[in-house]
Design goal:
The chain is of the alpha/beta class. The chain has helices spanning about 15-25, 40-50, 65-75, 90-100, 110-120, 130-145, 155-165, 170-180, 185-195, 200-210, and strands at about 5-10, 30-35, 55, 80-85, 105, 125-130. The chain is built from ten helices and six strands; from the N terminus they run βαβαβαβαβαβααααα. This is DNA-binding response regulator.
Amino acid sequence: MAAPIRVLLADDHTLVRRGVRLILDGEPDLTVVAEAGDGAEAVALARETEVDLAVLDIAMPRMTGLQAARELSRRLPGLRILFLTMYENEQYFFEALRAGACGYVLKSVADRDLVEACRAAMRDEPFILPGAERALVRSYLERHDRGDRLPERAVTDREEEILKLVAEGHSSKEIGELLFISAKTVERHRANLLNKLGMRDRLELTRYAIRAGLIEP
């Protein structure tokens, strides 16, 4: 028999991780070898643990699943990435694809779809939540007929990192230490964010971060 698929599981809710682990470890060809409580921990674990597949939540502290996926795709191009999320949202779906993911599964149907999504990922086959294909294709074709492009991201990767940490209440000094940049650089990025998004203060940035799925309300 082939060795089981080694899975890294990242979600900031312990009970969710426990339930998902029970589902995956119950299959002979899947085994969870590492668990992370946020995106930054997931990236660190993926670099020091032999894993084949990363299953990531989208909204997590410090670094979101989307941010972690972009980092993992750069550092470990052979790693398969799958999103397990509560967000049935077209924008998140396309962001997940841009970030390097090969699948997108809703937590509400994880017991039904997650195992097959993991196997599809390892076969290099995309997995889209059942029922969503028609709506996504229709939306894409409508946008194409109008001559619209797929929605662009409003902020850069670095700005998104800083926006998330600002919204979580970190000071410029703390953010600088987490991202290995100076507090002055953090302040410059923060000012650029306020100007680019047409906002005035941390409260408005926090509301934007919630709408963007960077933090949970």
